[in-house]
Amino acid sequence: GAGGWSPLVSNKYQWLQIDLGERTEITAVATQGGYGSSDWVTSYLLMFSDSGRNWKQYRQEESIWAFSGNTNADSVVYYKLQHSIKARFLRFVPLDWNPNGRIGMRIEVYGCTYRSEVVGFDGKSCLIYTLNKKLINALKDVISLKFKTMQSDGILLHREGQNGDHITMELTKGKLSLLINLDPSNAQINITLGSLLDDQHWHSVLIEHFNNQVNFTVDKHTHHFHAKGEFSYLDLDYELSFGGIPLPGKSGTLSRRNFHGCFENIYYNGVNIIDLARK
């Protein structure tokens, strides 16, 4: 009715779902109870989805899985989200409500249009970026992207040199591995982060390479690595490959399985790779 949302039956199987019409960056939420009533929700879950079928729960902090709701019908309880949500659909799932009333909610969602470049890969293709040699900074490399997939294996990124040096980022059994190979010394660095990354939700990746320092971040977890000696002199071609390796069999024992899923907002040292590919 006009006083807000109140389902016919008050139990833990009810939810209020919002379709924002397009993928949106959500930065805050606010709730009230039903107008002029004894109906309000005292705690709730917040779920989000791109498709309306595959849902993920938002957690304010690792230990806090529910939002505290209202203590009366009309006071506004506002939460600024610690990490913004990028999604089209939201669900408010009541957990508890006023024992002397029913489930009742008025909600407000705050955010802005989320601008993104998305490209899909069918497991047989890759996107190759040839660097402008004039813009290369040998001391610093920063690569960032988001990906989502239902496949547990696939190559996300590959860069190779003439002498066998290569950097490969690969999804293996739902975990993400960064493999750095220095061919002359036959030294290998293999860092693995994350799990269940094949859940068809977006995951963010950041690789920062400064001299011989590497920061590898998957979602909110970062592995810092300090390599010795020749690492800062990786002999790499002016070419990056996203989604697969162009010439199979070129470098060692990798899964050879191309990526099948979506990439969003691929950046190499500030260059928007997907936007360049569209052009």
From TrEMBL:
<feature type="domain" description="Laminin G">
    <location>
        <begin position="118"/>
        <end position="279"/>
    </location>
</feature>
<dbReference type="Pfam" id="PF02210">
    <property type="entry name" value="Laminin_G_2"/>
</dbReference>
<keyword id="KW-0812">Transmembrane</keyword>
<dbReference type="GO" id="GO:0016020">
    <property type="term" value="C:membrane"/>
</dbReference>
<keyword id="KW-0472">Membrane</keyword>
<keyword id="KW-0245">EGF-like domain</keyword>
<protein>
    <submittedName>
        <fullName>CNTP4 protein</fullName>
    </submittedName>
</protein>
<keyword id="KW-1133">Transmembrane helix</keyword>
<dbReference type="InterPro" id="IPR050372">
    <property type="entry name" value="Neurexin-related_CASP"/>
</dbReference>
<comment type="similarity">
    <text>Belongs to the neurexin family.</text>
</comment>
<keyword id="KW-0732">Signal</keyword>
<dbReference type="InterPro" id="IPR001791">
    <property type="entry name" value="Laminin_G"/>
</dbReference>
<feature type="domain" description="F5/8 type C">
    <location>
        <begin position="1"/>
        <end position="112"/>
    </location>
</feature>
<dbReference type="InterPro" id="IPR008979">
    <property type="entry name" value="Galactose-bd-like_sf"/>
</dbReference>
<dbReference type="InterPro" id="IPR013320">
    <property type="entry name" value="ConA-like_dom_sf"/>
</dbReference>
<dbReference type="Pfam" id="PF00754">
    <property type="entry name" value="F5_F8_type_C"/>
</dbReference>
<dbReference type="InterPro" id="IPR000421">
    <property type="entry name" value="FA58C"/>
</dbReference>
